[in-house]
User: Which sequence fits this backbone?
């Protein structure tokens, strides 16, 4: 999936509704990408985050597939496809409550 720009089915992947605290890492390289503290429910069925844990570990590139222009998010070291960046999420990080 990650090396061929694949997309897992919405609402049927292992992490879209995961609420456990932790760090999301690249499946190929193990580099830390996102914190569960920055995760929010986007309603899309995929895990969504307000920011990367280590900004240097995440890169973006222009994706002109599917007859539209989007911003693709990739891991910096393994070049894994992580999804797409959209600007309609929370304007600030979501606070975790116990």
Assistant:
């Amino acid at each position: 999936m990650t090396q061929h720009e694949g997309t897992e089915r919405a609402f049927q992947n292992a992490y879209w509704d995961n609420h456990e605290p932790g760090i999301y890492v690249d499946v190929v390289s193990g580099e830390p990408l996102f914190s569960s503290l920055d995760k929010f429910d986007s309603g899309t069925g995929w895990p969504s985050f307000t920011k990367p844990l280590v900004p240097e570990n995440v890169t973006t590139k222009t994706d002109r597939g599917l007859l539209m222009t989007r911003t693709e998010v990739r891991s910096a070291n393994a070049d894994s496809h992580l999804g797409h960046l959209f600007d309609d999420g929370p304007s600030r990080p979501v606070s975790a409550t116990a």
